[in-house]
Write a structure and sequence with these properties.
The chain has 243 residues and is mostly helical. The protein is 59% helix and 4% strand.
């Protein structure tokens, strides 16, 4: 799943864990991807491309057993949960961050080609429903609707909704091979792919954080003032005074 919709996932968790910092949630939902970026730069994991890149189907996460395997992600989530909840005494934060880490894996399994191992060196078939390589146009619709669903659950502002839709539309050429876009320059340059992904992660996290504020209860009341009858009752005008 692309960066904007991973970032949107943090909105769901913010709705559930209202006292937890959105910054912590945003970082948690992209922790796997940030690890993938670092491991690619270090040469531990590898990305490849087809000779011609026309869509996301031509970009291959060839070796990602540490950042995206099931066992490693669950282990990272458990260690993070234990450290924060047991070590620091922050129960809600520990659970929210752990769930955020695992959410990235779940969403990637739903969209990726089969490239997610059960654990490093696992001999079993890799996981991935194959939308990116088999039906990228369907993946686009799924991602767009998912981003809107996150916004709806969060009950965010119109500005936030607009940003989620526009950012998804900005990636449309990656999903439709008939639409030319910047992906054509990625052929034969796997590290450029990594850099482009990283270049999306940070702005998307910042954008969602900036637009995530919701109207307070007070501003909501001010925007929809009570009726004149109700105002008069609240002011005591219908309460009989002693003579």
């Amino acid at each position: 799943m692309f960066a904007i919709n991973h970032a949107a996932t943090a909105l769901i968790f913010k709705r559930r864990f209202g006292d937890v910092s959105l910054v912590a949630l945003l970082l948690s939902v992209q922790a796997m991807e940030l690890a993938w970026v670092a491991l690619n730069y270090l040469g531990v994991e590898h990305t490849t491309t087809a000779s011609t890149v026309r869509s996301v189907a031509d970009i291959h996460l060839a070796y990602i057993p540490y950042s995206h395997s099931v066992a490693m992600v669950i282990a990272a989530a458990l260690v993070t949960w234990w450290t924060i909840e047991r070590g620091l005494g922050q129960r809600a934060l520990g659970r929210a961050v752990a769930i955020g880490i695992v959410s990235h894996l779940v969403l990637d399994v739903a969209t990726h080609a089969p490239d997610i191992a059960l654990w490093p060196g696992s001999p079993f078939p890799q996981l991935g429903l194959g939308l990116y390589n088999g039906a990228p146009s369907v993946a686009f619709v799924v991602e767009l609707l998912y981003g809107v669903l996150c916004w709806w659950i969060y009950r965010g502002s119109r500005a936030l909704l607009s940003a989620l839709v526009v950012c998804n539309l900005a990636n449309v050429s990656f999903f439709f091979s008939c639409i030319p876009g910047p992906e054509q320059f990625l052929a034969g340059h796997p590290m450029l792919v990594v850099t482009v992904v990283f270049g999306q992660i940070v702005p998307m996290l910042v954008l969602v954080k900036m637009l995530s504020s919701r109207p307070s209860a007070l501003s909501s009341v001010q925007a929809h003032p009570p009726s004149t009858w109700r105002q008069r009752i609240l002011r005591g005008q219908f309460i009989r005074r002693p003579t």
